[in-house]
Design a protein that fits this description.
Helices cover about 55% and strands about 15% of the residues. It is of the alpha+beta class. The protein folds into 3 domains: about 1-225, PAS domain (Beta-Lactamase, 2-Layer Sandwich), CATH 3.30.450; about 240-320, Signal transduction histidine kinase, dimerisation/phosphotransfer (DHp) domain (Helix Hairpins); about 330-480, Heat Shock Protein 90, CATH 3.30.565.10. Helix 6 (about 235-285) packs antiparallel against helix 7 (about 290-320), helix 8 (about 335-350) runs parallel beside helix 9 (about 370-390) and helix 9 packs antiparallel against helix 11. It is rod-shaped and about 160 Å long. The model has no long low-confidence stretch (mean pLDDT about 85). The structure holds adenosine-5'-diphosphate (ADP). Adenosine-5'-diphosphate binds near residues 414, 415, 442, 447 and 471.
């Protein structure tokens, strides 16, 4: 028998699969959560900063409107503006730029620094939009994270429209958030690892009973059929173990039946073979055997051979009936005619035994059946009736039906069958009285063949009998097979 290896690559083991699936199940939602919470917090802080800068930009644009652009070109105009709106460039690094209607920078809070834009033309889209009267707030993320709040400002004396731009460096927000983000991802990783370890440890409880089952099954498949899986839980494993144990019992039963069958067959064939051996040896052992003695012996040998042929024929018939894959040859069958033919064939036997054979047709019955097999099944029972009924007795066959089934009743006035034997007589080679039955030429296979055939037709056989009161066999066959 081929042995099946229980070594699996780790990635096929249930334990690893469980642990990895749980990591996936816990980390993915965590990552989605982290991602959305980071977006939410970033928006919150950036909006907070916008809410501080925007009103100040609005006030500045109002104030600028009170100056002429020419006066704004004068030094320290920005400082004056800043004082008015109480904003310092050190506050969040805000840079203030004022441009005229030609986008030329009139003043810049970085006026004294190297990157001062004073006098330059600032062709930024937000500036150009402000010159067209549209305020804007733009977040620019590059090496630095900058917030541009740009608003238009009108020189009320000349009517020229310029702009005030507040540029706030918001790196501080992103710096502190990136620290927060790193911590969040670190915690998620820790959660994932913890889940993995927990699931790996806990899956031990799931896997151990399974391994136990596998071990027992392996020993059983190596031939130790008497083993059983211990049932230690009440979960699905217990169902599996119980089912498997039941299946093993069935297998054992099949094995026992097979052995019994082989021993029965051998035993049945051994008796005639021994008789043949004894008869032939006794002829051989004598020098000159009188003609009539040797004839008598040869006749005995011939009848023993007949018996063996009879047993072999019945065995073949039984094997055929039991071959499930050999399908039934179903066709519409006239049961009345079938029974009449059987009785016609058996009437010489009945005459010889001085048994009266009666037939009663209650109604014509037509069913779906395998005619040849069903004829053999009915014939076996009628023949038994004739065989076991003493001289002067009666065997009566009645054919009847209801709207679902056909009923074939075979009733005799023989010795009957004791109640405790009624189940056993359908077993192969079972005979109530071996010596008496041997005289009648029975093999003990007839009823086994009949029952298998009737079961294959989805029908049933019932016996009604008491000792010395004869017996009644009722065969029920469904009218339609499907
Ligand atoms: P056999 O070939 O020996 O008749 P069966 O399987 O047909 O084998 O029957 C099994 C046993 O049942 C018979 O040996 C007999 O003892 C008993 N039996 C069957 N039919 C009858 C009957 N009509 N009356 C009494 N005993 C019967």
């Amino acid at each position: 028998m081929a042995t099946i290896s229980d070594k699996l690559p780790w990635y096929h083991s249930i334990r690893w699969r469980l642990a990895l699936s749980y990591i996936g199940l816990s980390i993915v939602p965590l990552l989605i959560f982290n991602f959305s919470i980071m977006g939410f917090i970033t928006d919150y802080f950036v909006n907070n900063r916008i809410n501080v800068i925007q009103p100040r930009a609005a006030i500045m644009s109002d104030i600028v409107s009170g100056f002429t652009f020419t006066s704004l070109q004068q030094e320290a105009s920005i400082r004056r503006l800043r004082d008015r709106v109480r904003i310092r460039s050190s506050d969040w690094g805000v840079r203030i730029i004022v441009v005229d209607d030609n986008a030329r920078v009139l003043d810049d809070s970085n006026r004294d620094a190297l990157d001062s834009l004073v006098g330059q033309t600032l062709l930024q889209s937000s500036v150009l939009e402000a010159l067209n009267g549209r305020n804007s707030t733009v977040l620019h993320r590059g090496d630095e994270s900058l917030l541009y709040v740009t608003m238009s400002a009108r020189d009320e004396i000349s009517g020229r429209v310029g702009a005030v731009m507040l540029v706030s460096n918001i790196d501080d927000i992103f710096d502190s958030l990136s620290e927060f983000r790193a911590r969040l991802y670190l915690y998620s990783l820790a959660v994932g690892l913890l889940v993995f370890v927990l699931v790996f440890v806990m899956s031990h409880r799931i896997i151990t009973p399974l391994r136990q089952i596998v071990r027992v099954v392996q020993r059983m498949s190596a031939g130790q059929l008497n083993l059983r899986i211990p049932i230690t839980s009440r979960d699905e494993y217990s169902i599996l173990s119980r089912t498997f144990n039941n299946m093993t019992e069935e297998l054992e039963q099949v094995e026992r039946t097979r052995e019994e069958f082989v021993s029965n067959v051998s035993h049945e064939l051994k008796t005639p073979l021994t008789a043949i051996k004894v008869l032939s040896e006794s002829i051989l052992s004598q020098e000159s055997v009188p003609e009539e003695v040797s004839r008598e012996f040869m006749q005995d040998i011939s009848s023993e051979v007949d018996r063996m042929v009879h047993i072999t024929n019945d065995l073949l018939a039984l094997v055929k009936v039991n071959q499930r894959e050999q399908s039934l040859n179903i066709a519409p069958t006239d049961i009345n005619k079938l029974v009449e033919d059987i009785l016609k064939r058996l009437s010489p036997l009945a005459e010889q035994k001085k048994v009266i054979l009666l037939y009663e047709e209650v109604r014509p019955v037509q069913i779906d059946a395998d005619e040849i097999k069903l004829a053999l099944a009915i014939s076996n029972i009628v023949e038994n009736g004739i065989k076991y009924t003493p001289r002067g007795g009666t065997v009566k066959v009645v054919v009847d039906s209801d709207h679902q089934s056909a009923f074939i009743t075979i009733q005799d006035t023989g010795p009957g069958i004791p109640e405790e034997e009624q189940d056993k007589i359908f077993n192969r080679f079972y005979r109530i009285d071996k010596t008496r039955d041997r005289d009648t030429g029975g093999t003990g296979l007839g009823l086994a063949i009949s029952r298998s055939t009737v079961l294959m037709h989805n029908g049933s056989i019932k016996i009604n009998s008491k000792p010395d009161e004869g017996c009644v066999f009722v065969l029920r066959i469904p009218i339609r097979m499907s």
